[in-house]
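re: the backbone from monday

yeah here it is again, tokenized this time
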């Protein structure tokens, strides 16, 4: 098997060696229940307290404002349902068309099954929101506004400070899914009127199965998980000791490595991006500047993203496609559709997402292999890119029937 070149860090990250070392004793040596009355469990409880402080530090908030959860999805669901249960008379939500399924699928459920109304804000060709559209969408019965901090596919960063101020001025709760942003973007919740914020451990080199939800003091809150007294009665269930302690350590490491993420990792991303865009019929998806330092989403026109990924996989290179083949039909990503990316390009979108564990040698390998892969795939197409580009310019955007047909 080839050495793995992992460029899919927006999907998940490796557990940092320091995190693994930190949590190992809690599997077999310090395994007490942190909620127990005896000192064996109590000592573990002290470690969870330290972890809570580390998570709070990277957000610059109070440790008491952190609730540990199982993942980003649970944090998102908890925030939305809490707002709806706190204000049962309010039946309207606002979100965007480019959110993670953790938000979008929930909103569709609320519409279809529970009769709520949801406004989905659009984005422009660069993936940016129109704040005037947001202002115009707020109603007296709006219970909550939920907008992601940074998009998981394109890396585009939204103006969270401005959105939070708009929500505060209108007296509406504001939640942000910051799963992709923590450790990559500076977050100071002491200065931002954000009411709730979600994060997930496995996106910043902590184990899978742990997340957190920030809930600002005095924000109306209703628990999602009902049961025991854990998390001060705000999230029932025995504490995931190893996950929580690992998340705390990962947040500490992320804070210490923040400048590397913003400089060295960004430089590697830029080198990769500049090289890929030299390939004919390629385009960058998302704003060139207003995005995460590790994320690059490029469309390779007139080829299938899945075919690119298969050939990359044979070389041990891991990336993601912005499209998915379901039940024999291929649909581009909802994010790229919302941005108006032509189907001929959205169909061949690839997301490369880096971490501090990537090297320049890995980037050079990808830049060496990608032109060969694209040339190979285009050579077996019955139509040349030039012919298809001509049709696109004539307004014919119908190419893209799944090749398996």
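seq for it, each position gets an aa:
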């Amino acid at each position: 098997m080839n050495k793995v070149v992992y460029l899919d860090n927006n999907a998940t990250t490796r557990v940092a060696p320091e995190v693994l070392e930190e949590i190992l004793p809690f599997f077999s040596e310090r395994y007490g229940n942190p909620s127990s009355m005896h000192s064996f469990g109590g000592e573990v409880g002290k470690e969870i307290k330290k972890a809570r402080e580390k998570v709070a530090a990277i957000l610059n908030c109070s440790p008491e404002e952190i609730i540990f959860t199982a993942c980003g999805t649970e944090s998102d669901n908890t925030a939305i349902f809490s707002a709806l249960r706190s204000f049962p008379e309010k039946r309207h939500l606002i979100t965007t068309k480019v959110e993670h399924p953790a938000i979008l699928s929930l909103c569709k459920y609320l519409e279809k099954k529970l009769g709520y109304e949801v406004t989905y804000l659009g984005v422009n060709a660069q993936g940016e929101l129109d704040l005037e559209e947001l202002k115009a969408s707020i109603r007296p019965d709006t219970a909550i506004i939920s907008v992601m901090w940074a998009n998981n596919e394109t890396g585009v960063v939204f103006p969270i400070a401005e959105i939070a101020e708009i929500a505060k001025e209108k007296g509406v709760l504001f939640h942000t899914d910051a799963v992709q942003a923590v450790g990559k973007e500076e977050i100071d919740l002491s200065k931002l009127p954000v009411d709730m914020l979600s994060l997930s451990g496995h996106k910043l080199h902590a184990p899978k199965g742990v997340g957190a939800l920030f809930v600002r003091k005095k924000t109306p809150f209703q628990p999602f998980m009902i049961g025991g007294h854990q998390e001060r009665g705000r999230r029932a269930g025995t504490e995931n000791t190893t996950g929580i302690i690992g998340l705390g350590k990962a947040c500490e490491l992320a804070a210490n490595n923040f400048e590397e993420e913003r400089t060295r990792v960004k430089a590697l991303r830029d080198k990769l991006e500049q090289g890929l865009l030299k390939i004919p019929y390629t385009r960058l998806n998302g704003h060139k500047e207003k995005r995460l330092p590790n994320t690059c989403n490029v469309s390779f026109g007139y080829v299938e993203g899945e075919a690119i990924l298969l050939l990359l996989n044979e070389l041990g290179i891991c990336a993601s496609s912005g499209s998915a083949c379901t039940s024999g039909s291929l649909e581009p990503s909802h994010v790229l559709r919302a941005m108006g990316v032509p189907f001929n390009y959205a169909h061949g979108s690839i997301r490369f997402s880096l971490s501090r564990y990537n090297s320049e040698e890995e980037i050079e390998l990808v830049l060496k292999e990608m032109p060969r892969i694209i040339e190979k795939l285009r050579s077996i197409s019955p139509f040349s890119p030039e012919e298809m580009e001509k049709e696109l310019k004539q307004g014919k955007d119908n190419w893209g029937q799944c090749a398996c047909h």
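The longest strand covers residues 295-300. Residues 39-59 form the longest helix (21 residues).
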